[in-house]
Write a structure and sequence with these properties.
By secondary structure, the protein is of the alpha/beta class. It is built from 11 helices and 10 strands.
Length: about 280
């Protein structure tokens, strides 16, 4: 699904300042990382994409829908099915007595009926490495990783065109992170567009193809992850580099190792070949 923002400004009614300032971006990739410091405008942006807010100025195009200041919110409600959000704090999205009831809530809320829902759930549970026995238990008895998987599957069951994941890896064990990113990656190959908000540069580096960076409500980067991390590598900005590149950046005085490491060549292997 095409997704573009054209000169987007947004100001909250209670604020005197713009939260977003002239954001223009064509989110063509199916795996996009949305990054930036806290307060940079990421949450505001995804709520615009989900039609919870309308832009103060500019227009957002989502498929055949155009959202502007004049758009009627009631007429945009269907966009909340096409653009689903899984928030960072999963417990705030869970409330049903059993996992099965939790999974069915969003479907019922949107008035969606599916004949083969049990088979679909079974397929998602297999993809996310979840045991079907969990369907019978309370979602609050699950581990953090299991809760996150259930929350994601709940949104996937409504068949969104775009899935927004807000800090999907925070507090999760490595296996859960691998399960989630691996399953979602396979779904992007079938056409699902995923926007991942994250401070976890390892996850961004592993999953995303393109990156949009916001700083104080303005777009400061829009392009491939290769170019983004190369720029941060040359800046020696260690906090914005995945672990595979951060150590190398501190010792690579002439910035000559980036392409080798980005393409998967180990640092030790490279140094050994160069007799360093």
């Amino acid at each position: 699904m095409n997704l573009t923002l054209n000169n987007i400004f947004y100001k909250y009614p209670t604020s005197k300042k713009m939260t977003l300032n002239g954001i223009t971006v064509d989110m063509a990739s199916n795996k996009i990382g949305l990054i930036g410091e806290s307060g940079s405008g990421k949450s505001t942006l995804i709520h615009l994409l989900n039609a919870l807010h309308r832009p103060t100025h500019g227009e957002i195009t989502i498929g055949d829908n155009i959202i502007t200041k004049e758009s009627k919110l009631k007429k945009l409600q269907h966009i909340r099915k096409d653009v689903a959000i899984v928030y960072q704090f999963t417990d705030l999205q869970l409330f049903a007595e059993t996992v099965k009831q939790e999974l069915l809530f969003a479907l019922n809320n949107f008035g969606i009926e599916k004949e083969n829902i049990d088979l679909e759930i079974e397929g998602y549970f297999k993809a996310f490495n979840l045991d079907l026995e969990y369907l019978k238990v309370s979602p609050f008895s699950l581990s953090g990783g299991q809760k996150k998987k259930v929350a994601i599957i709940t949104m996937l069951l409504i068949d969104p065109k775009i899935l927004i994941l807000d800090e999907p890896t925070v507090g999760l064990d490595p296996q859960s992170v691998e399960d989630i990113l691996g399953a979602i990656d396979e779904m992007t190959k079938q056409g699902l567009k995923v926007i991942m908000i994250s401070h976890d540069m390892n996850a961004v580096y592993k999953f995303c193809d393109d990156i949009v960076e916001l700083t104080h409500g303005m777009k400061t980067f829009d392009g491939s992850k290769y170019d983004f991390f190369k720029h941060k590598y040359r800046q020696k900005n260690i906090l914005m580099l995945p672990s595979e590149l951060s150590y190398a950046a501190t010792i690579d005085v002439n910035n000559v190792l980036y392409d080798e490491l980005y393409n998967g060549r180990g640092l030790e292997e490279f140094l050994k070949e160069k007799n360093v």
